[in-house]
Amino acid sequence: MTATAALLAFTLAAAILTITPGMDSALVLRTAAVEGGRRAFMAGLGVAAGCLAWGAIAAFGLGSLLLVSTLAYDTLRICAALYLFYLGVKLLWGSLKGGKSAAGGPQAARPPAAASAGGWFIRGCLTNILNPKVGIFYITFLPQFIPSGADVLRFSLLLAAIHALLGVAWFALLVAATRPLARWLSRPAVMRGLDRMTGAVFIAFGLKLALEKR
């Protein structure tokens, strides 16, 4: 397989994986709907940064530790599950507080669990970098698209960069898709519903990760 063929094949495979519904898309959609496009896009950039980090880890061979060490894998898995639980509970709790304040008026219009743009970048990055399944994906998936004779380190980083750029493009599309509905999505009742739904998704993903047997 030539380098060009490998790049085209990887780009197609990565594009399909990128648009597949998952936790990252849920995070960006919720943030776009409740807290605005800028924060949502920063969350998407954080997810992309997590992809680049895992790509670098895999390229330098450090990610193979997850394949051979059950302790390393389980430690990262539990950390990821706890972090997802934290995000999910925070969203659910914020939506309940928002509901209680609805009778009071102005406070209900404030989006629960709000964070700065930088804060959402960190959240997006952590949801990705703490997930050992993403690491295993990079360790096992990237080598299939590295042609014979290519510089493994550079080509792995190039593939990771392609995946990250595809993610950024997809998240930008998701953010743009919410803009026509911005007025409706900004209603307190709708925001609380989105937070409850997204919080439940995060808790479900965290529970699945915590109970997963390797």
UniProtKB/TrEMBL annotation:
One of its GO terms (cellular component) is plasma membrane. The chain crosses the membrane at residues 40-68, 75-93, 113-131, 152-173, 193-211. The keyword Transmembrane applies. It is a multi-pass membrane protein. Coiled coil: none annotated. GO terms for molecular function: amino acid transmembrane transporter activity. Keywords: Cell membrane, Membrane, Transmembrane, Transmembrane helix. InterPro entries: LeuE-type. It comes from the Bacteria. It is found in: Cell membrane. PANTHER family: ARGININE EXPORTER PROTEIN ARGO, ARGININE EXPORTER PROTEIN ARGO-RELATED. This is Leucine efflux protein. It comes from Achromobacter agilis. The lineage of its organism: Bacteria, Pseudomonadati, Pseudomonadota, Betaproteobacteria, Burkholderiales.
